[in-house]
Write a structure and sequence with these properties.
It is a single chain. The chain is α/β, with parallel strands linked by helices. The chain has 3 domains: 137 residues, Rossmann fold (3-Layer(aba) Sandwich), CATH 3.40.50; 147 residues, Alpha-Beta Complex (Hect, E3 ligase catalytic domain fold), CATH 3.90.1750; 135 residues, no CATH class. It is built from 15 helices and 15 strands. 24% of the residues are buried. The strands form 5 sheets. Strands 2-1-3-4-5 form a 5-stranded mixed sheet, with helices on both faces. Strands 8-10-9 form a 3-stranded mixed sheet, with helices on one face. The chain has a 3-stranded mixed sheet with strand order 11-14-15.
Length: 503
């Protein structure tokens, strides 16, 4: 005798007038079960795009425990709108002998016709979900072109307040009186030819000003200076963005020197460089700007032409660049030449805004010498260890990835075996799942390759040894390569040097 119970599952994304309620769904399910007893599983406020729903997971656990005989739903899409999730779910149902019934679509998995209809319906359920996603994307770009604020972090100096625009309740930016004067000061200071971003950062640090509860990084200030949300946009601003290739939504006559602007990435654009405006969308915002167009444009053009601020450029004055960090705050140490001609390692955070006491008096040459000696000693230890254990240590991360890779490859093989006698619809599902598994397989292979790249091969060790033995005649690029092969980071002050090794 089968002692398992029937289950009814109901899901409602949100409360809407045209959305059938949980109670109504369960009523349909009860009618399908002809008044018989059942256990109800319900999720309210959850989307059907995935199966990460509390009570649905409880249902799956009860199925795996052998407690459920049949699952009844009001409609197929109450369970899932994803082909992959549905295919996985049907595998679980078949494994545990669970029937699946949709009360309104009149099919169940106890018959071949029911299974075929189920496969067809789930295809259209996913099509509907993808259509919804496209409509959401279309709506996003339609709204931003009309000047609606599209969310994200509120720009420093502003807050949001309720606003009705084109008969739609939304929000607009309004000046935050506690911070907006700091914004005006930023633009006023930087518009002066002799003032640098570092000067502004130090001035703000002395005043105790914090941007969005964070530090005063020059990159943060640089992005603010480029943001048209602050400008009172007039024809000069219009002509600037037009000359840069931006897509300007509003007519030129609308640029009256009152409103700020929103700058949105173009619909089909990937991430762009900070000053590449071609194809980006500029639209007038409903809020008033806070910086005059002449001051804003001075700052914008100065920031574009500021060759002194190049955070990604390659250092050439020390092979420790990128590895050496301040032992007090963790920011990068940079080598700079003092007036006496000696190179010292300077804390980047202290240089920018005096937010750190610094690493002390730390000569570049002395730190380089200490790191070189530590690398030579580490290499001697490494050679000793490898002689004692010729098999080498097993990396547990590599082992775990190899196990997972084998599991995925085995699952792909099983799916390929099932295609021999499958119908067209099941072939389509299997192919979809194989594509998904293959993508996972490629990701695992890449992670394995990355881990292998971090391991130092015997040939690399030989080259490193040769460089270390002839260090005085080794160029800066080769020295940097040796440090990169052996070291993760160097935490240094004038009192101590702590090296985090890769080997």
């Amino acid at each position: 005798m089968d002692n398992r119970i029937d289950a009814a599952y109901a899901r409602q994304s949100v409360d809407k007038k045209d959305s059938i309620s949980i109670e109504s769904q369960l009523e349909f399910c009860g009618h399908e079960l002809k008044g018989g007893s059942y256990k109800a599983y319900t999720d309210k406020g959850f989307s059907g795009k995935n199966t990460d729903r509390p009570d649905f997971q409880n249902l799956l656990r009860d199925i795996r425990a052998g407690l459920i005989r049949r699952v009844v739903v009001y409609k197929l899409d109450r369970i899932s709108r994803s082909i992959i999730d549905f295919a996985n779910m049907m595998e679980l149902f078949q494994k545990h002998g669970v029937e699946f019934v949709s009360s309104t679509e009149k099919f169940d998995t106890s018959t071949p016709m029911g299974r075929a209809m189920l496969n067809i319906c789930i295809v259209f359920a996913q099509l509907e979900r993808e259509t919804i996603q496209k409509r959401v994307t279309d709506a996003y770009y339609s709204r931003n072109r009309k000047g609606f604020r599209m969310g994200g972090k509120i720009p420093y100096g502003f807050r949001t307040e309720p606003f009705v625009m084109l008969d739609v309740k939304t929000k607009k930016l309004a000046p935050n009186l506690d911070d907006i004067e700091n914004v005006r000061m930023l633009f006023d200071l930087y518009s002066r030819p002799e003032v640098s971003l570092g000067d502004v950062a130090r001035r703000f640090a002395e005043m105790g000003v914090q941007i969005n509860d964070g530090g005063l990084q020059r990159m943060t200030l640089s992005k603010m200076l480029r943001n048209p949300v602050y400008v009172r946009a007039d024809m000069d601003v219009h002509e600037f963005f037009k000359s840069q290739g931006a897509d300007i939504i509003n007519d030129a006559a609308d640029f009256m020197g009152v409103n700020g602007c929103y700058l949105y990435k173009g619909r089909d654009q990937e991430r762009k460089e900070l000053d590449d405006l071609a194809g980006q969308t500029l639209v007038l915002a409903p809020h008033e700007g806070v910086v005059s167009s002449d001051v804003w444009l001075k700052c914008r053009r100065k920031a574009m032409n500021n060759s002194g601020f190049q955070p990604a450029r390659k250092a050439t004055n020390t092979w420790l660049a990128g590895k050496a960090k301040c032992g007090r705050c963790g920011y990068a140490l940079m080598s700079a030449t003092a007036t006496n001609g000696t190179d010292y390692m300077r804390c980047k955070k202290r240089t920018e805004d005096k937010g750190c006491d610094g690493a002390g008096t730390l000569k570049t040459a002395e730190l380089e010498r200490a790191v070189y000696e530590a690398m030579a000693e580490k290499l001697r230890e490494f050679h000793t260890l490898t002689k004692q254990d010729k098999g080498g240590a097993v990396n547990p991360k590599v082992t775990a990835l190899k196990v997972e890779l084998a599991r995925v490859e085995n699952e792909i093989e099983k799916l390929l075996d099932t295609l021999t006698d499958a119908n067209d619809i099941l072939i389509s599902y299997a192919n979809t799942k194989i594509v998904d598994l293959d993508a996972h397989k490629q990701g695992l292979a890449k992670r394995l390759a990355d881990l292998a790249a971090d391991d130092v091969s015997p040939d690399q060790m030989l080259r490193i040894s040769e460089f270390l033995e002839d260090w005085e005649n080794t160029g800066i690029d080769d020295r940097r390569a040796v440090a990169d092969a052996l070291i993760n980071r160097i935490n240094a002050t004038s009192e101590s040097v702590d090296i985090v090794w890769k080997i």
